[in-house]
Amino acid sequence: MKELDTVVLRRPLPEAGLEAGDVGAVVHRYDAESYEVEFVSGEGRTVAVVTLPASDLRLIEAREILHVRSLAAT
Questions:
Q1: Which of 25, 26, 59, 63 is the one with CA 20 to 30 A from 3?
Q2: DSSP alpha helices (H): ranges in 1-74?
Q3: pLDDT per position in the chain (74 positions), as tens?
Q4: What contacts 40, CB < 8 A, 6 or more positions away?
Q5: Which CATH fold topology does 6-59 show?
């Protein structure tokens, strides 16, 4: 994975309001095993920026379609 890649979260992160399957963008690569990823709402508002190990992420595949869900009320 590299900066600006679109990635999919492999596991839920309830403390950040994220669920497995949420789509984000790599905003910084620390090394081959650690990435800063931004997750945004449909209107472009940042929902979370988290540092994650590579094992928590995967690249989005060409034959996948995005899905919409509502965020929990804050």
A1: 63
A2: none
A3: 999 999 999 999 999 999 999 999 999 999 889 999 999 999 999 999 999 999 999 999 999 999 999 997 65
A4: 24, 25, 46, 47
A5: SH3 type barrels. (2.30.30)
